[in-house]
Amino acid sequence: MSNMHIEECVRASLESYLRDLGGTEPDGMYTMLVNVVEKPLLEVVMHHADHNQSKAAQWLGLNRNTLRKKLLEHKLIR
Questions:
Q1: What range defines the domain where residue 38 resides?
Q2: Rounded to an integer, what distance in angstroms lies between the CA atom of residue 70 and that of residue 77?
Q3: CA of residue 70 relative to chain centroid, distance
Q4: 11 phi and psi, to 5 degrees?
Q5: Counting Cβ atoms within 10 Å, is residue 67 exposed (0-12), middle (13-18) or buried (19+)?
Q6: How far, CA to CA in Å, does 53 sit from each of 2, 39, 74?
Q7: Residue 34 sits in a domain of what CATH number?
Q8: Res 60: pLDDT
Q9: Is residue 78 a part of any domain in this protein?
Q10: Is 14 inside any structural domain?
Q11: pLDDT-derived band of residue 4, with 50, 70 and 90 as boundaries?
């Protein structure tokens, strides 16, 4: 799967979301999208990194403390 495929999936989902609103103006789309993409991204990367936060942070290009904060925000760790 290429980055373009992911981009196309996101674009199609956003078009469908806006169509489903039926003319109602959306609110807070940026935060909504970041949250719905970020959680599964963190889940998949943590799984493939065997829950090693240092390795996952490196793969994601994040500081380990930033990763930990995001994992806590999404209730993926305690």
A1: 3-73
A2: 9
A3: 10
A4: -60, -45
A5: buried
A6: 25, 15, 15
A7: 1.10.10.60
A8: 98
A9: no
A10: yes
A11: confident
Residue 76 structure tokens? 């993926």
- Give the per-residue SS3 of the chain: CCHHHHHHHHHHHHHHHHHHCCCCCCCCHHHHHHHHHHHHHHHHHHHHCCCCHHHHHHHHCCCHHHHHHHHHHCCCCC
Q: What is the pLDDT of residues 5-53, one digit of tens each?
A: 999 999 999 999 999 999 999 999 999 999 999 999 999 999 999 999 9
Chain position carrying tokens 């889940």 = 43
Provide the number of structural domains found in the chain.
1
**Residue 7 forms part of a structural domain:** yes
